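A quick aside before the break. I want you to see a complete sequence-to-structure record at least once, exactly as it would be stored in a machine-readable document. Don't worry about memorizing anything.
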Amino acid sequence: PYVISGAAGGASYNGWNHSVALTVNGAKRFLPCLQLFKSRNATTAALLEADDGGSFLAFTAQQYRAQLAQLGIPIVYNVTFPRGNKDFVQIVKELGEKKPDIIAAAQQVT
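That is the input. The structure line, written in tokens, reads:
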């Protein structure tokens, strides 16, 4: 899948062939990336959202939802997890079952 991450810090995705990490104010840059993924036949998405107890990551997730809807790409898997979560086994299992073409992560690298 293509992976796009809106993060409040730098991020590196070693081992991912198709990843984009956007930093603060990255939300306005999501659309061109999502358009590129769609042009390469991406038709479904998953949205992973860390709950930061505030509005930053909620805003990022809202931007993903709006821009995916604008492109007609349905979200087939949506999960919110606590910030600082280190156990992603269930989330990865569920992602594997849904097989999204795009994984959009609203998270904060700390």
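Two observations worth writing down. Helices lie at 30-39, 56-70, 89-98. The CA atoms of residues 10 and 88 lie 20 Å apart. We'll return to this after the break.
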